[in-house]
Every structure is written in structure tokens, then in C-alpha cells.
Amino acid sequence: MSKLIPSAAKLLSGATVSKAAAPAVVASKTNYSTKSESTFEIKPYKLHKLDKGPATSATLTSEDALQLYEKLAVLRRIETASGNLYKEKIIRGFCHLYSGQEAVAVGMRAALRDVDSVITAYRCHGWTHLMGVSVLGVLSELTGRRTGCSRGKGGSMHLYGRNFYGGNGIVGAQVPLGAGLAFAHKYRGDGGVAFALYGDGAANQGQLFEAYNMAKLWDLPCVFVCENNGYGMGTSVDRSSASTEYFSRGDYVPGIWVDGMDVIATREATRYAIDYCSSGKGPLVMEMETYRYSGHSMSDPGTSYRTRDEVQEVRQTRDPITSFKEKIIASELVTPDQLKEIDTKVRKEVDEATKQAKAEAEVGPEELAGDIYYNNLENVIRGIHPAAPLQHVEVVPRN
Amino acid sequence: MSSHFTFFPDEHKPIEGDTTKMNMMQAINNAMDITLKTDSSAVLFGEDVAFGGVFRCALGLQEKYGNDRVFNTPLCEQGIAGFGIGLATAGATAIAEIQFADYIFPAFDQLVNEAAKCRYRSGGQFDCGGLTVRAPCGAVGHGGLYHSQSPEAFFSHAPGLKVVVPRGPISAKGLLLSCLKERDPCVFLEPKILYRAAAEEVPTASYEIPLGKAQVLKEGDAATLIGWGTQVHVLLEVAQTAQETLGISCEVIDLMSILPWDEETVCNSVKKTGRCLVAHEAPLTSGFGAELAATVQSECFLHLEAPVARVTGWDAPFPHVFEPFYLPDKMRCLSALEKLIHY
Q: CA–CA separation, A220 vs A11, rounded Å?
């Protein structure tokens, strides 16, 4: 098994930076697939104020293909598990699923380097996992348990990881933070690029335009990524946005439109964006056109503002996993059996994590007053309690 | 998870006539329906209100009044508030829905710096009095950090605004109709857990409940318990339990208007009972209870048998997994009341 599916760390290390679209070579590298690499055409990008866009074809090795497929499958499975846990009332509160949008995160992540940073909104379960948090770390956060990546204190919208700045609950609020992250990369000279993700709904928040301006003014290595899934909560893009060409809405910030349902396209576009931004040219806007299968959150059935047929049609014709699967099987990069093995492995991994996420304990009630301040000057946390105020506790060690 | 309170329906009807059983969502819908029908300048807008909004308060209103009067906005709270202020300044009755009170902070500048000061700074020439901003607030059982907050105290610090919180369907309809007629900008905070949990026989005709006036819901002589929104029901249950277990009779006041608040009703009651307990879900420090406590001690000083007690949320972000420990629930209020009685 381990030969077939190298660790996630390898996929995510950014080691695979081969750029040139090498010709397809027919060679039997494994016992399973018949070709070791293959080249794929990418749906044309749309460009705004750019002379040249990302590569319009890209080469995958069979290893790349298996790795990408596994990540897509894990993300889908995490969301299926989340939806079920929500229906069982084990996840409470607000929960936003990413199913349908997996190719955006998986393709982008495959191109990211160790030095790059990411911040996103509340549809963050998959991103968190891709940035290095275990499936249990994600699911336990959703169930509010101590093994959650935010100790169960953040819940569905507030997941964090290394170089992953959350998981943010207020629509659009994370985008200016992304500009700040980018400034830090530039100031430190570490060559990193910050990716600030937001939805088509958030694209109409005023603070985005404030962030675009600062980023361009100071030529920050920031990629503003609009995940356009067609609907801002229950309102379609045509009803909410005077211009739905989100890639051009940075005006003086150059932009690219990308087919967000194609994991190869999102990977190539992200490689291009990293090159562009880390060479000192300033920010980019990258629109990823995608689709969400579920409602906005669990309380939205997602059918009052679109038809069931529309959702079905996307599932059948544009699903990011199915279409990728067909592509890599048809090109003989992988065999159906190899993908089945991955499916089985992923199902087992997520099922086990789900079980454990239900069984773990919550953090103790003393953490109600935990980590509110770095240095709590009063020592206690005020509030009326018959016996005593709460003791402020420092759960995470202070430097 | 069972909710942390028991709903006490209003016994008193504000007007005679036919009634219909409505929950608070339906009562608010009804108030907006009446306004859209009788006030041709009235317009309702906000995120997803076209299909009723996430809590369905605007259900059916777009079909009834058309999409030029009931419409969706983009997700842009600062823009929604500013747009509403402009519309109201031009003479319309603008009903702006902010999807959750927790999302109102991008609009805070518009409300505090523009709406509140409009009349004053133009020397009375201009105003945006037709503006009412509605927003669901308060604990809901599982809302977590950004779907649970009670921001009334922030707005109480902005002279020029009126801030109102209903406790159920009857008060919601009457208070909302008052806000919509009021010629000052109003922030109408709707405790979201009551949308469906609360049902009452609501008069079908139009009626108004005066702003700036509290209501005494239960008379008593041992202590005055003051709350607003959902907390009123917690306090009514506390009063009931105190009667049964301690044999004391408490007076319960629903403040209803936070700005301006009814000093007369509160102070008269405290002068009578000599003891005062204020409870709210928002954190203790600079919560609106602080304003009540300060005024009560200055106005009722010689009548007080004990310091004013406050039972509130903790000075912590609203916690997702600790909501039951965070809320000023019945047991915490009862315990504080016992201390107040035995001071």
C-alpha cells in the first residue's frame, strides 16, 4: 500500500515543481498502470491585465495522479462524515461543507511550497487537513473534543494549522489579513506567498477592495483567490454582483480565471501565481469557478434558490473527482483497481477518525476562561458566579 | 440539547380584538407585512430576504410586495447600513436586516457615526429616522463565537439611536411597529432562539408598544429582577422558584428598550423592593447592567438593602462548547438572588 500511495507529506512538500510539459512517455513503471506520465490540456484561462497566463497543458506522473486522487477522495469523505455527524447532532451549530469544491484546495495545495501561507473563510475543513492537520484533528474540532485542532473551542469555522491562518467566521474579514500575511513574507524576505481565499459572496464586501489597494500599492506577494461556487448563501452571483468576472474585479490588480473543477488547472494556475508574486510583481486575483453541492450551511437545504436538476447535472458532468478519475484512467496513468484501493483506504481512515472523534473527551470547563489573554492582568475572569470568578488559565504555554 | 429557559407567554393583550397564534418569527413577519401594506415608502432588504431570510422572518413578503420593495442585498453589512441610512434620509421607511447581530460590526461605523449623528450634526435639517435595522441576537444553544452575541451595550453608547429587544411574539410585533413609525433610527435586536420557541396569541390588528418604556410582568416586594429578551423568561422562572422555595415574591421587569431605558419604572420598583438584580447574556464588564446598577445606586441609594447584583455572561468570547456554563441561567440567577436576600 505504501508504495502506491506515498505519504501526504511528499505530495505537499512542493517537491514536484517540474514545469515543462514533457511529452507523454509510454513506460511501465508499476505493476498497475501502463504509463508513467501523461499530458493533459487545460480549459483556457481568462486573463485580466496579463500578457501571459499559466501553462495550458500539464504533465502528471502516475504518482502525482494517485496522490491528487487520494486527497480529493479524503476531502469528499471528510465532508460526508461531517454531514452525518451533524445529522446525528454530534456536530452542533454552524457547519459548511466543501463537497464539490475539492479541486480548488487540492490543486492549490499541490503547488504550494513550505514557505507559503493560506487563510480562508468558514468552508475550511478540507483546507485544514491539506495543510497538515490529521483527519481526527479536523473531525474532533467539529465534535468539540480536546483532540480537535483548536481544542474543540473553535468548532467548524475556526480550524488552524501550520501556515494556515484559519478558518474565519465573518464574511470577507480574512481577506485583509491575507494582505498582512503577504507583507510579512515580503518584510522577512522569505520568498513566501500568501493566499487569501474568499467566496463570490464575500467578493462584495468593501474590505476586499481596501485589501486589493494596499496589496498593489505595496506590491505584496498576495494571491486573492475567489472561490466562485455560484451562490453567496442563497443568492446567485447574477443577483448579487454587478460584475461576475471576479478575476477582473481587482481593477489594477491582474487576474486569472481558472476552471476550479479541474485539479490540474488549479495546480498549474497556483504554480504560475507563486512565480508571479514571488518575483516581486505584486498581487494577483485568481477566480476559481467551482460549485457546492450542499446548501450554504447545514440549515440550508440548498434547494430554494436552485433546482435539484442543476445540482445533479454538475455532479454528473463536472464533478471534480469523477472527471479527474476518468481522465487518469483513460490516459492509462492509473488503473481502476488502484483507485478502488485508495477509496477503501480513505474510507477506513475517515471512518476510524469519525469513531474516535465521537469518543474523545471535551476539554474541561476551566477552559471557558482559558487563553483569553496572553497576560491576564487581573488573573481572574470576571462574571458573576455565586462562589468565585473564574481563574484565567494558560492552556497553551507562553513563550 | 434542551434550551436553558422556559418560555412564559404574555397574559396581557395590548389591544382587544381577534388574535392568531404566532411564533416570534411570524409576529415579526406580520409587523413588516402591515408596514409594507400601509406605508408605501417602506422597503425591506438584506442578505437572502427574498426567500424569507435565514430565519424566514420575511417569508412571502417579496411575492406580496414585489422585488422592488423586498429584495436581496449582496453580503456587505457596511453597505447595507449605509444604503439604509441614505434611503431613510431621502424619506423612506427602510427596514434593513443584518443576518446575525454578530455580523453587524462591519456596519458599526455607519450606525454609530452616520445614523446616530445625522439629525444632530445637520442642526435638525436632515435625519434618517425611517431606518430600522433588525438583527437576530443572543444564545441559541449551539451558535458558538459568531452566532450568539448580544451587542446591545455597544449601541447604547451612541446617542441618537434607539435600541430595542423584544421578549416574545406580542412584544416583538408591537415594538417593531413602533420602531418602524419612530422618526429616529432604531436597532431592533431579536433573540433568535425565540423565533420558533415562543408562541402567543397575537392580536391580528396593528398596534404599537411604546419605546423607552419597561413593563412590570410580575409584581412583588422582595427584590426587583430586571432583564430583556430571552433573559426575561429565565427571570420569570427564577421568581416562580423563589416563591416556591424561599417564600418570597419578586418583581420582574422587562426593560424592552435599552436606549432610552425606563429609569422611572426601574427606580420606582427598586425603591419599593430595596433589592435589585440585573441579568443579561452579554459579558459583565460594560454590559448594560452596569448602566442600570450605577443609576439604581445613585437614585435608590437610601432604599437599597443590598448592593445591586449582576448576573451575566463571563468576560470571555461566547464559547462554542461551553454555552451552558456561560449563560446566566436560572440556577446562577437564583443563587445570586439568595445572596441578595440574605445580604
A: 27
